[in-house]
Amino acid sequence: PFDVLVIGGGPAGATAAIYAARKGIRTGLVAERFGGQVNDTMEIANYPGVPETNGPAWAAQLEQHVRNYEVDLISAQRVAEVIPAAQPGGLITVRLENGGTLQSRTLIVATGARWRNVNVPGEQEYKTKGVAYCPHCDGPLFKGKDVAVIGGGNSGVEAAIDLAGVVRHVTVLEYNPDLKADAVLVSKLESLPNVTIRTHAQTTEITGSQGKVSGLSFKNRDSGASEHVALQGVFVQIGLVPNTEWLGSVVQRNPMGEIVIDAKGATSAPGIFAAGDCTTVPYKQIVVSAGEGAKAALGAFDYLIRTPAA
Ligand code: FAD
After folding, report:
1. Closest Cα to atom 15, ligand 1: which residue?
2. Which residues line ligand 1 (CB under 6 A)?
3. d(Cα 155, Cα 136) in Å, to the nearest integer?
4. I need a surface site. Which of 59, 75, 198, 279 has the fewest CB within 10 A?
5. Could you tell me the domains of the chain?
6. ipTM value of the model?
7. What is the pLDDT of residues 142-153, one digit of tens each?
8. Nearest by Cα to 110 from 271, 259, 214
9. Is the pLDDT of residue 40 over 90?
């Protein structure tokens, strides 16, 4: 059995594995896709000490860093279920989708999250070619350009306020008759000179030309009319879904499905820790996830030295 088994190979999981292995304890890492969301990122320019890189290059370096240590790396495998220890200090069992099982005294869940897609023609085709999901990450790429934000909830309106300070013009599209964001955010948005708000707006297509986004079509659900806006970028802000469904009720999760953790990354189940985008930690970013992975690994080590094996 492992002392620490990490589930997930994104920035949080990889960092947790490095920190655990450096303690000289038996460390395993199981991941469906090493690198996680970083693989889908074109340019990374906000990781301190690395002025500029791209997702696949950074993910490859991350994997090399993990491989420098004695980490049992189990790639291309999905975890299907966790069976908690019968008592604190006992072994936790992890069942893989392929039927195999792994056992460990502690677990660090770092399975990340996925952006909800709008599922309209053009979205997949122009991903990273104008279709973006993270304003903190990709906003500066659209400096001086026209963009749309799909979604008028808190994340959409926050994104639009953020982008309005960087880009030339922002069109916010909300499906419902009203923006769903907090009133203070909505009035801030309405005060900005370079923002247009369109409600009753159902996005129907993201259009492109020469391999890049050229505009967005939507249907006005009130009048039934179809419209097209010419622009260079579309930020999809209709929710970030944590990859935690498979955990069931093993650990406490909030109504959004995020795993509830304390300051040391501990969950409600003894010996089970969590880190990164799959948790309640705010501001989903690479540097935040990496830091959270380090905390969870140190938390798990602390637990191991204080809890007698049962
Ligand atoms: P993830 O990166 O989501 O990794 C999750 C890991 O868990 C993966 O290895 C996955 O395969 C694995 N996994 C999931 N479920 C299972 C399962 N059941 N069994 C086994 N393994 C499983 N942040 C920045 O700081 N800067 C940027 O420029 C930036 N750009 C971004 C661009 C895009 C397009 C996207 C989508 C995100 C971007 N982000 C950026 C956000 C950043 O990528 C995430 O915050 C970060 O990757 C989260 O790390 P994580 O380790 O928590 O999760």
Report:
1. 111
2. 7-13, 30-34, 36-38, 40-41, 44, 46, 78-79, 110-113, 115, 133-134, 137, 243, 246, 276-277, 284-287, 289
3. 12
4. 75
5. 2-114+240-306 (3.50.50.60), 117-236 (3.50.50.60)
6. 0.99
7. 999 999 999 999
8. 259
9. no
